[in-house]
Amino acid sequence: ALVLCCLGLPVVASGLLADSKPEPVAMTPLEVKWESQGALATGGIEQARLVGDPSKPGPYTIRLRFPAGYKLAPHTHPDYREVTILSGTWYTGYGEQADPALLKALPAGSFYTEPANLPHFVEVREAVVIQVSGVGPSGRAFVGAQKTK
User: Where are the alpha helices (DSSP H) in 20-119?
Assistant: First the structure.
């Protein structure tokens, strides 16, 4: 029975992949559609969905645009995420309290991860664009009663 189960697993897995045939995506920066609403776009953040939808199950890649002076209080995400800084300098730190001494400056071209449910905080001193990839559903939960500033 174990052998039959193991032999059938690749068939089931390939069947699942066959059901989700992604369409090819090729877009220029001018074709990227920015919105002020989205799974992670709140309070001045703009979001552009490139692939998938972070509010739904499945892989997604989005871009987020932050205005100068923006701060995000300590928060978590339910999914593991990978982040690339596309423009500007992004300041991030890990912890349940926003501590400027823990902020690390990440200039354009930098990369970091946000493990699921790990509290982290953000400060943006200049306009910044980041690209985030993960597997949804995603979201944001603030630690304690802290909120976006």
Answer: none
* Alpha carbon distance 28, 69 (integer Å): 28
Contact by Cβ (8 Å): 130, 85: yes
Terminal Cα distance for the chain, rounded = 57
Return the H-helix or E-strand segment holding 58.
strand 58-66
* Helix H or strand E encompassing 43: none
Give the pLDDT of the chain (149 residues) as one tens digit per residue: 544 444 444 444 444 444 456 789 999 999 999 998 655 556 789 999 999 999 999 999 999 999 999 999 999 999 999 999 999 999 999 999 999 999 999 999 999 999 999 999 999 999 999 999 999 999 999 998 555 44
The answer, as to whether pTM is greater than 0.85, is no
Q: Supply 110's token pair.
A: 């930098």
Dihedral (Cα; 26, 39, 130, 63), 10-degree rounding: 20
Distances (CA, A) of 103 to 28, 80, 90, 94, 110: 32, 20, 9, 8, 14
Q: Is 81 helix (H, G, I), strand (E, B) or coil?
A: strand
